[in-house]
Amino acid sequence: MVEKNAASVAGGPAEVFAVFLKLGLTSFGGPIAHLGYFRDELVTRRKWLDDRAYADLVALCQFLPGPASSQVGLALGLLRAGWLGALAAFTAFTLPSALLLFGFAMGAASIAGPVGTGVLNGLKIVAVAIVAQAVWGMAKALCPDRERAAIAVVAVAVLAFVPGASGMVGAIALGGMAGLILRRGNAMPHSATVAMPVSRGQSVAALAGFGLLLAVLPILSGQGQAFALIDSFYRAGALVFGGGHVLLPLLQAEVVAPGWVTPEAFVAGYGAAQAVPGPLFTFAAYLGAVLGPEPNGLAGAVLALLAVFLPGFLLLVGVLPFWDRFRMMDRAQSFMQGANAAVVGILGAALYSPVFTSAIMDLRDFTLALLCFVALVAWKAPPWSVVILAALGGAGLAVMG
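-> structure tokens emitted (401 positions)
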């Protein structure tokens, strides 16, 4: 990324923090909605950069693993005010939802009685509708032909025989190889974009750090639970292709499968995460707080939160100087098409287990989940309002017995 955008002028970290705190408090609706909020605030109103440069940043962050909206925010903070601006953007955008989910984690265990239990059940039920909506939308966008639909089905089959993180990695790798064989990818056009203050040396260091942590953390995980926690959340953050909802099966494999978090607590927290603004990756703060083994509570929340965001940020910094050349490669686009199709299958498998199997116990639960799904898909209701609907519905079902 080599050309300076005329619309962009230097700012300060305090300005970046204030702008992104506003966005962190008001950006409901998931990563695609977040990108719309960013464009309205930073391109249209404040003119930090123009539409062409913004579209280029969005394309990069959607191509990489990690939290796309948070990566775009980090890049915009970096562009506006350097490395302190990047830190300010991440902190301000992440903190509101992380604090809300940490508070929910600390208070969820004390919820008792039929109404409180019903609210928690409602949060589990709404997760079924939200993940189903994500699978439906991603399938239409990422599996538009028979070949890529078949890749998604194969990914489900891989997980049926090889569950957990290893199965997910294998499914993504197979999907990518299938994409290379199909050769459907088209190179993206060259785009003159903004000049990011990232040197080649910093880029190489970030990529080396990403790979080193991915290799060393599994070895260190045997030295204590803190290292095991960091390893699990870092690995999950490193494998997220296709948006925040894909984090669900990855984290389920890392924290539910070994017994650190119960399936019920996992799904209830995921439902609660839909009702707060900001990035869905802050679900990690909830999980870190409710972990059975220590560190948990505040320490677990902080470690989990930093670990899940770190790989996406290292990759972003690592590829910024090389992105324009890489995006013009047909094979790179073909690989990503196949990998993204496999991601749809992985998320579909997660919709069945743990989401559906943990939340739907009878026809009444299924009816509430179906109502939430229709509200999201047909009525286009905002997710936070559907979460409230599900919580009220769950409480009503509990009172009725």
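Residues 137 and 151 are 16 Å apart (CA to CA).
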